[in-house]
Amino acid sequence: MTAKLARNMRRGGMNLHNKAVRGNLIHAPVCGQIEALLDALILIDEAGVIAEVLPGCPPRLCADYAARGALVTLRPGQYLLPGLVDLHVHAPQFPQLGKALDLPLDRWLMEHTFPLEARYEDVGFAAEIYGRLIDTLLANGTTTALYFATIHLPASLKLAELCLQRGQRALVGRVAMDHPQTCPAFYRDASAALAADETRDFIAQVQALPGNVPRLVWPVITPRFIPACTDELLQLLGALATQTGCHVQTHCSEGDWEHQHVLARTGQSDAAALADFGLLTRRTVLAHGNFVSAADMDLIGAAGAGIAHCPVSNSYLADAVFPLRAALDRGLHVGLGTDIAGGASPSVLENARHAVTVSRMREDGVDATKPAGSRGVPGARIDFREAFWLATAGGGAALDLPIGQFAPGYMFDAMLVDQNAPHSHLGVTADDDAADVLQKIIYLVQRTNIARVWVGGRMVHEI
Questions:
Q1: Which residue in 93, 99, 218, 334 could disulfide with 171, CB within 3.0 to 4.6 Å?
Q2: pLDDT per residue over 14-32, tens digit each?
Q3: SS3 for 50?
Q4: How much is the pTM?
């Protein structure tokens, strides 16, 4: 966080509580559809909640807000979009970003990831890394992030504190993993009881954080994945989910190894096993889901759980492509995840681009030695409209939070995209309609185009 931004945040500079924003807005309240409001006016209340969205700017109302110094007007070439939602981030893996992706998942974890995560016993190390990560995500337009932390309670609490301090909407989980056969001795919980007790303590401490009202940071029950947890631990965490109503996150059917391990151990799929343990709820987010079956999708849909689609990391470590189109057609809650550091980018927009690309590859196939009609899965593609929805409103719905679109009652989480930023690739012309503009934003926007970011009406990033 820059010194200038820190001063502005303390003084309330460019915060939008009890203010209005006038300009061109683009959002996707419905999957597959975009809505562009030209010269619109958004009224924001004292809590950072959207009070009203008015297409066109009523002259008297605009004049009233302007007279009070409470009107922010976007300049030509600037566009307001909802803040991005990242449904799957391994916060401690940030130093590993872009590293060791040539390895299979088991070696990636054992040789790089687990040794790195073990270092977060040092809270000072954790604070330095987590601060840089949060700043990086905010600068990329990520207003809400669902975080895996580590098994260390103090460091996990530090991540929650830093998110609150920097103003990022965050859901943070102290990771639970106790299985002696799949977790290294230097990095695992000593017992199922300890992991469950520390998860309970973490929930209470996050909920009691000073200043966390209205709620900006939530605790999350976080079994790493079934292979890393004993049945006893999974049962204890399922009971805790029932008792507390907290969000739940874990990996589900990510790759061949995990998928086959769970089938052999439990006799059923990840989704079915998680349901039996009480871990499949309306507030559950399952990362990846590449091997979910139609029956699994029915189970996930009936529970109201969500899936974090991680197209970049799946390309490296998952051995498969998530059946996204099928999940959307069934009405499942789906959003996007960067999966730092399995995904080599901190940008949700980049994952939106990849979501479109991998869906096209799934539909068209990649083996040119096969006839065109037999290479892929017909009807599997999505386009930029659905990808944008996944990155915003879809992620908000998966978390069961009022975020991701510009509508009354929703939090004013937003990013200001500026095509006039230095060295910008984004070039909007007079011939471009709203769909063209959004498509260009998705494919061409870089971090330098994201001029300002607000969470709940509070400015948390500024170039």
A1: 218
A2: 799 999 999 999 999 999 9
A3: strand
A4: 0.96
